[in-house]
TrEMBL record:
Gene3D superfamilies: P-loop containing nucleotide triphosphate hydrolases. It comes from the Eukaryota. One of its GO terms (molecular function) is four-way junction DNA binding. This is DNA recombination and repair protein Rad51-like C-terminal domain-containing protein. InterPro entries: P-loop_NTPase, XRCC2. It comes from Suillus discolor. GO terms for biological process: DNA strand invasion; double-strand break repair via homologous recombination. One of its GO terms (cellular component) is microtubule organizing center.
Amino acid sequence: MASLLNEIPRESLQNLLSSVRVYAPPHISAPAPLLSSLSRGNVIEVQGPASSGKTHLLYHFVLLCIAPSRQMSIDFGGNGLAAVIYDTDASFDVARLHQLLLARLSLFLPHNIEMARRLTEESLHRLHVFRPTSLLQLATSLLHLPSYHRVSIPEHEIGLIAVDSLSSFYWTDRFIAEQMRNVPHREPEPSSVNPLQHVLTALGRLRLSHAPFIILTNWGLNLASQSSGPVTFYKQHLHSFPVYSENLDASALPSSITDDLPPTPMPLPLTHHVTLLPVSIPPFAPEISLGDAIQQEVGYRRSMVQKGEITGLVRTTGRHEITRLTLCITPENVHIRHS
């Protein structure tokens, strides 16, 4: 695997994310076009195994969104926009985000820590975290997000919407779908069997009406075959989930933003797909129990994420090449290692 990765062009995360800062002001008449670089309306899927760094990569996106852009003639590198997080895994740690954001802003204000603290608190007011307990609850919350925006945060444009993770209710919903299919003399509606479709429809509507940057984290459960390329990726286990294709151009947003949206499900094309590579773990002792092995594996992966480097493979819709990014994580910072 290491030799194969060396053949993949390396792209720093900073270069990949530098074009995030292209959000137009609120009440724009036309959204920016969807480019191969990250811009408003883009949809990115982050896939990887447990404790592979998905949430920490999300922290970096959120920091870019909510951090101030420019104050006191200092460019803080943020967008100053609102970020809406749907934390279905209960893994999004606001205290950790606060730590990372304060460390980031303190680098710009080394002699004024009080100002850095104040800006950190102001930035966190632009963060909104919801914790739905089902896909249908998630879909309902997404459908009502425009109303929440108008009533609760009218002063801030929504720059980012993230679901961490879409896989949280996979087994529960799969069980319910199987039960419904087994009900005699009843033909279940596809939308009721697959609640994920409601979520994708709601996200599609928000993509058209608000043009946020959308991030969807997803579990990597089963490795895909290597027959299609030199690098192994994960199979998509979520039914009706948008699929990355190197031969498909991302659908552009319409020329104007309107509330007059049709009731049919909106398309949600992926513009980028990031696969976070699994962390290698040492062999288990022969006498270890299954429970201890699982606990040891999760703990080892988590410790590696906290102190090490995360490697991701980036695929962009409409492009054949695969690029590599490296995210370096320390207790005080999530920083970029430039190539």
